[in-house]
Amino acid sequence: MQLQWLRHYNFLIFDETDSTNAEARRLVESGASGNFIIWAKSQTHGRGRYGRSWQSPPGNLYMSILLDSNRFASKQQELSFVTSLGVYNAIRIIGLRNKQKLNLGLKWPNDVLVHGAKIAGILLETIKTHNRQYLIIGIGLNIDNHPCDIDRDTTSMSAIVSQVPEVSHMLDVIMSSFEHYFALWQAQGFLPIRHLWLQKIYNPKHVMTVNDGRNRISGIFQDIDLNGAIRLKLASGQIYTLSAGEVFFGHV
Ligand code: BTN
Question: Which of 30, 154, 173, 174 could form a disulfide with 146, with the two C-beta atoms 3.0–4.6 Å apart?
């Protein structure tokens, strides 16, 4: 581990916890201050987006970055793009070391795909207490195994590279990469992050269907706007903008 990033964070390691995001929340509620990295080797109640569960057996990476976000409370959502770029880049680095060119891509808002299958998920949660604002960024990366009994394609590092990295090494590479994009974001704002993110989107010309919680709307991906909302061109020519929801490829 290079652990350069350690000077910016307190680092907690658990053999098992319910959820590293829940652990982060408890830290804040108990009055802890500062930034933390929480790493668990397995989770009993890992959670995903939309109230789904995130299967968390040993062998994969489960971590949360807890940030004191008071300085950037109105822009916390942008960290979703910063984080997915960090995870994308970390996987790319491992692929290069294995001399393997991976067909990597990002899916709005923050999934990382390899050959079209989800390898990592990111869950952002905010918490306000003691008059301060905190952001919890939960990252799950399939390394040794991936779920097969869910309704979408998933994959893991072990399925795509010959030399599978240690979980601790993956955490280190992700944090170094996250710190790089976080520094860029702090210095120059969302524009360069948006630009980099758009270059890495998976299958941009595909028809995509978004679910806004009530309706499903299909269209051709246009871009993401300056607030990170996705914009699709509908068959009518109209542009549809969605700031929170889920994306599927094709007509669903
Ligand atoms: C998704 O649904 O795509 C997001 C999955 C996020 C899973 C990670 S694992 C570490 C952290 N702790 C949790 O309970 N969830 C996130």
Answer: 154
